[in-house]
Amino acid sequence: MSTAVMIGSEYLPLHHKSKGFILKVPFGKLAWATVSLPLLSFIFCVIWSILFHFERATYTHCEVSNYLPSISAAIGVFSPQRHVWRIAIAIHAGPRLLVARMYYRYYQGVLYQWIHFMAAIACWLNVIENLALIGLTFISSAENYAVHEKCFVTFMVTSELYMMLTCYLLRSMRRSPPDNIEARSLRIKYQLLAVNVMSFALAAYFFIRHNSYCEPGVYSIFALCEYVVVLTNMAFHMTAFWDFHGRELLVGPTGVQFS
After folding, report:
1. Coil, strand or helix at 26
2. Fewest C-beta atoms under 10 Å: which of 28, 76, 211, 219?
3. Is the dihedral of CA 61, 197, 84, 46 positive or negative?
4. Cα–Cα distance for residue pair 162/223, rounded to 1 Å
Protein backbone atom coordinates (compact mmCIF):
# COMPACT_ATOMS: atom_id res chain seq x y z
CA MET A 1 0.00 0.00 0.00
CA SER A 2 1.31 3.46 -0.83
CA THR A 3 -0.05 6.97 -0.67
CA ALA A 4 1.26 10.53 -0.88
CA VAL A 5 1.10 13.81 0.95
CA MET A 6 0.99 17.15 -0.82
CA ILE A 7 3.45 19.90 0.14
CA GLY A 8 2.91 23.06 -1.86
CA SER A 9 2.39 21.94 -5.43
CA GLU A 10 4.40 18.73 -5.15
CA TYR A 11 3.64 15.27 -3.84
CA LEU A 12 6.05 13.50 -1.53
CA PRO A 13 5.37 9.76 -1.53
CA LEU A 14 4.75 7.89 1.69
CA HIS A 15 5.50 4.18 1.49
CA HIS A 16 4.00 1.90 4.07
CA LYS A 17 6.39 -0.71 5.45
CA SER A 18 6.11 -3.13 8.31
CA LYS A 19 7.79 -0.74 10.71
CA GLY A 20 5.74 2.31 9.72
CA PHE A 21 5.78 5.10 7.18
CA ILE A 22 8.83 6.42 5.42
CA LEU A 23 8.83 9.95 4.03
CA LYS A 24 10.87 10.28 0.85
CA VAL A 25 12.27 13.79 0.26
CA PRO A 26 14.34 14.65 -2.83
CA PHE A 27 17.66 15.60 -1.23
CA GLY A 28 18.60 18.16 -3.86
CA LYS A 29 15.41 20.08 -3.20
CA LEU A 30 15.99 19.86 0.55
CA ALA A 31 19.48 21.33 0.10
CA TRP A 32 18.07 24.12 -2.09
CA ALA A 33 15.29 24.91 0.41
CA THR A 34 17.84 24.99 3.26
CA VAL A 35 19.88 27.75 1.61
CA SER A 36 16.71 29.60 0.60
CA LEU A 37 16.02 30.41 4.26
CA PRO A 38 19.02 32.73 4.77
CA LEU A 39 18.69 34.01 1.20
CA LEU A 40 15.11 35.22 1.63
CA SER A 41 15.78 36.58 5.11
CA PHE A 42 18.84 38.44 3.83
CA ILE A 43 16.84 40.08 1.06
CA PHE A 44 14.13 41.01 3.56
CA CYS A 45 16.62 42.52 6.02
CA VAL A 46 18.32 44.70 3.40
CA ILE A 47 15.05 45.97 1.91
CA TRP A 48 13.47 46.61 5.33
CA SER A 49 16.56 48.48 6.52
CA ILE A 50 16.49 50.73 3.45
CA LEU A 51 12.77 51.42 3.76
CA PHE A 52 12.46 51.96 7.50
CA HIS A 53 15.94 52.52 9.00
CA PHE A 54 17.75 54.21 6.16
CA GLU A 55 19.48 57.04 8.03
CA ARG A 56 20.77 54.93 10.90
CA ALA A 57 21.55 51.87 8.75
CA THR A 58 23.73 53.86 6.33
CA TYR A 59 25.47 56.03 8.95
CA THR A 60 29.23 55.70 9.42
CA HIS A 61 31.81 57.61 11.44
CA CYS A 62 32.72 59.59 8.30
CA GLU A 63 29.25 61.17 8.25
CA VAL A 64 29.13 61.28 4.43
CA SER A 65 26.30 60.28 2.10
CA ASN A 66 25.72 56.53 1.73
CA TYR A 67 22.94 54.67 0.00
CA LEU A 68 23.16 51.05 1.12
CA PRO A 69 23.47 49.51 4.59
CA SER A 70 26.31 47.15 5.36
CA ILE A 71 25.36 43.54 6.04
CA SER A 72 26.12 43.88 9.74
CA ALA A 73 23.79 46.89 9.96
CA ALA A 74 21.04 45.23 7.93
CA ILE A 75 20.91 41.92 9.83
CA GLY A 76 22.30 42.60 13.29
CA VAL A 77 21.20 45.99 14.58
CA PHE A 78 17.51 46.68 14.06
CA SER A 79 14.23 44.87 14.69
CA PRO A 80 12.55 42.94 13.18
CA GLN A 81 15.51 42.27 10.86
CA ARG A 82 17.74 40.90 13.59
CA HIS A 83 15.10 38.40 14.71
CA VAL A 84 14.18 37.32 11.18
CA TRP A 85 17.83 36.63 10.36
CA ARG A 86 18.50 34.74 13.59
CA ILE A 87 15.42 32.56 13.18
CA ALA A 88 16.38 31.71 9.59
CA ILE A 89 19.96 30.80 10.54
CA ALA A 90 18.78 28.70 13.51
CA ILE A 91 16.30 26.75 11.36
CA HIS A 92 18.73 26.16 8.52
CA ALA A 93 21.67 25.08 10.72
CA GLY A 94 20.56 21.47 11.21
CA PRO A 95 19.82 20.73 7.55
CA ARG A 96 23.12 22.42 6.59
CA LEU A 97 25.00 19.91 8.73
CA LEU A 98 23.01 17.11 7.12
CA VAL A 99 24.00 18.39 3.68
CA ALA A 100 27.67 18.44 4.76
CA ARG A 101 27.39 14.81 5.84
CA MET A 102 25.75 13.89 2.55
CA TYR A 103 28.50 15.63 0.61
CA TYR A 104 31.10 13.41 2.29
CA ARG A 105 29.21 10.35 1.08
CA TYR A 106 28.97 11.92 -2.35
CA TYR A 107 32.72 12.51 -2.43
CA GLN A 108 33.36 8.91 -1.38
CA GLY A 109 31.34 7.76 -4.36
CA VAL A 110 32.94 9.93 -7.05
CA LEU A 111 36.53 10.66 -5.93
CA TYR A 112 39.65 8.49 -5.91
CA GLN A 113 39.89 6.60 -2.64
CA TRP A 114 43.35 7.94 -1.78
CA ILE A 115 42.00 11.52 -1.80
CA HIS A 116 39.12 10.86 0.62
CA PHE A 117 41.05 12.56 3.43
CA MET A 118 40.80 15.83 1.51
CA ALA A 119 37.08 15.22 1.05
CA ALA A 120 36.84 14.96 4.84
CA ILE A 121 38.71 18.27 5.16
CA ALA A 122 36.26 19.90 2.74
CA CYS A 123 33.30 18.66 4.76
CA TRP A 124 34.80 19.88 8.03
CA LEU A 125 35.40 23.27 6.44
CA ASN A 126 31.71 23.29 5.54
CA VAL A 127 30.74 22.42 9.12
CA ILE A 128 33.05 25.05 10.65
CA GLU A 129 31.72 27.66 8.21
CA ASN A 130 28.20 26.90 9.38
CA LEU A 131 29.16 27.05 13.07
CA ALA A 132 30.99 30.34 12.54
CA LEU A 133 27.91 31.75 10.80
CA ILE A 134 25.82 30.78 13.82
CA GLY A 135 28.35 32.44 16.11
CA LEU A 136 28.53 35.76 14.28
CA THR A 137 24.73 35.77 13.95
CA PHE A 138 23.91 35.29 17.63
CA ILE A 139 26.88 37.22 19.04
CA SER A 140 26.70 40.71 17.59
CA SER A 141 29.65 43.09 17.41
CA ALA A 142 27.91 45.34 19.94
CA GLU A 143 27.59 42.48 22.44
CA ASN A 144 31.11 41.04 22.12
CA TYR A 145 33.22 42.53 19.35
CA ALA A 146 36.22 40.21 19.85
CA VAL A 147 34.18 37.01 19.55
CA HIS A 148 32.09 38.41 16.68
CA GLU A 149 35.24 39.36 14.79
CA LYS A 150 36.79 35.91 15.27
CA CYS A 151 33.59 34.25 14.06
CA PHE A 152 33.50 36.52 11.00
CA VAL A 153 37.13 35.83 10.09
CA THR A 154 36.60 32.10 10.58
CA PHE A 155 33.50 32.19 8.41
CA MET A 156 35.24 34.02 5.57
CA VAL A 157 38.38 31.86 5.63
CA THR A 158 36.55 28.54 5.80
CA SER A 159 33.97 29.52 3.17
CA GLU A 160 36.67 30.55 0.68
CA LEU A 161 38.77 27.45 1.35
CA TYR A 162 35.71 25.21 1.10
CA MET A 163 34.69 26.60 -2.28
CA MET A 164 38.22 26.36 -3.66
CA LEU A 165 38.79 22.83 -2.38
CA THR A 166 35.40 21.65 -3.62
CA CYS A 167 36.10 22.93 -7.13
CA TYR A 168 39.55 21.32 -7.14
CA LEU A 169 38.33 17.93 -5.95
CA LEU A 170 35.39 17.72 -8.33
CA ARG A 171 37.46 18.82 -11.32
CA SER A 172 40.76 17.02 -10.81
CA MET A 173 40.14 14.09 -8.45
CA ARG A 174 37.10 12.32 -9.92
CA ARG A 175 37.57 8.66 -10.73
CA SER A 176 34.82 8.81 -13.34
CA PRO A 177 33.61 11.63 -15.63
CA PRO A 178 30.66 13.70 -14.34
CA ASP A 179 27.28 13.43 -16.02
CA ASN A 180 25.80 16.46 -17.75
CA ILE A 181 24.07 17.76 -14.62
CA GLU A 182 27.20 17.40 -12.46
CA ALA A 183 29.31 19.09 -15.15
CA ARG A 184 26.88 21.99 -15.19
CA SER A 185 27.03 22.21 -11.40
CA LEU A 186 30.84 22.32 -11.44
CA ARG A 187 30.91 24.98 -14.15
CA ILE A 188 28.56 27.17 -12.12
CA LYS A 189 30.66 26.57 -9.00
CA TYR A 190 33.76 27.91 -10.75
CA GLN A 191 31.90 30.97 -11.99
CA LEU A 192 30.52 31.70 -8.52
CA LEU A 193 33.94 31.21 -6.94
CA ALA A 194 35.54 33.68 -9.36
CA VAL A 195 32.89 36.34 -8.70
CA ASN A 196 33.09 35.69 -4.95
CA VAL A 197 36.86 36.13 -4.72
CA MET A 198 36.81 39.24 -6.91
CA SER A 199 33.98 40.79 -4.87
CA PHE A 200 35.76 40.00 -1.61
CA ALA A 201 38.92 41.75 -2.84
CA LEU A 202 36.89 44.77 -3.97
CA ALA A 203 35.03 44.90 -0.66
CA ALA A 204 38.34 45.00 1.22
CA TYR A 205 39.64 47.77 -1.07
CA PHE A 206 36.55 49.97 -0.74
CA PHE A 207 36.39 49.42 3.04
CA ILE A 208 39.99 50.61 3.42
CA ARG A 209 39.36 53.51 1.03
CA HIS A 210 36.26 54.59 2.94
CA ASN A 211 38.12 54.64 6.25
CA SER A 212 41.10 56.44 4.72
CA TYR A 213 39.37 59.15 2.66
CA CYS A 214 35.72 59.31 3.81
CA GLU A 215 34.40 59.81 0.27
CA PRO A 216 30.62 59.93 -0.30
CA GLY A 217 29.16 56.69 -1.62
CA VAL A 218 32.29 54.58 -1.24
CA TYR A 219 30.87 52.72 1.76
CA SER A 220 27.81 51.88 -0.35
CA ILE A 221 30.07 50.29 -2.98
CA PHE A 222 31.68 48.30 -0.16
CA ALA A 223 28.22 47.19 1.00
CA LEU A 224 27.27 46.16 -2.54
CA CYS A 225 30.43 44.06 -2.82
CA GLU A 226 29.55 42.51 0.54
CA TYR A 227 26.15 41.55 -0.83
CA VAL A 228 27.73 39.85 -3.84
CA VAL A 229 30.13 37.90 -1.58
CA VAL A 230 27.25 36.60 0.53
CA LEU A 231 24.93 35.88 -2.41
CA THR A 232 27.58 33.99 -4.37
CA ASN A 233 28.38 31.96 -1.26
CA MET A 234 24.71 31.04 -0.90
CA ALA A 235 24.43 30.24 -4.61
CA PHE A 236 27.51 28.01 -4.35
CA HIS A 237 25.80 25.97 -1.66
CA MET A 238 22.62 25.88 -3.76
CA THR A 239 24.48 23.92 -6.46
CA ALA A 240 23.86 20.91 -4.20
CA PHE A 241 20.51 20.82 -6.01
CA TRP A 242 22.34 19.46 -9.07
CA ASP A 243 24.97 17.42 -7.24
CA PHE A 244 22.28 15.40 -5.47
CA HIS A 245 19.86 14.99 -8.36
CA GLY A 246 18.14 11.66 -8.05
CA ARG A 247 19.13 11.21 -4.38
CA GLU A 248 16.49 10.93 -1.66
CA LEU A 249 16.31 11.39 2.09
CA LEU A 250 14.27 8.64 3.75
CA VAL A 251 12.74 9.50 7.13
CA GLY A 252 11.25 6.70 9.19
CA PRO A 253 10.82 5.43 12.75
CA THR A 254 14.29 3.85 12.67
CA GLY A 255 16.06 7.08 11.70
CA VAL A 256 17.26 8.90 8.59
CA GLN A 257 18.70 7.17 5.55
CA PHE A 258 19.98 8.27 2.13
CA SER A 259 19.28 6.58 -1.15
Report:
1. strand
2. 211
3. positive
4. 23
- Whole-angstrom distance, CA of residue 196 vs CA of residue 35: 17
Residue type, 55: E
3-class SS of residue 4: strand
pLDDT tens sequence across 115-138: 999 999 999 999 999 999 999 999
Query: What whole-number distance in Å separates Cα of residue 164 and Cα of residue 11?
Result: 36
- Residue 176: left if φ>0, alpha if ψ -120 to 50, beta else—which one? beta
Sequence-distant (6+) residues with CB within 8 A of 76 are: 82, 85, 137, 140, 141, 142
Q: With beta carbons less than 8 A apart as the criterion, state whether 206 and 224 touch.
A: no
Q: What is the pLDDT of residues 151-165, one digit of tens each?
A: 999 999 999 999 999
Q: How far is CA 197 from CA 31, 190, 192, 230, in A?
A: 23, 11, 9, 11
Instruction: Name the residue type at position 251.
Output: V
Annotate 145-167 with three-state secondary structure. HHHHHHHHHHHHHHHHHHHHHHH
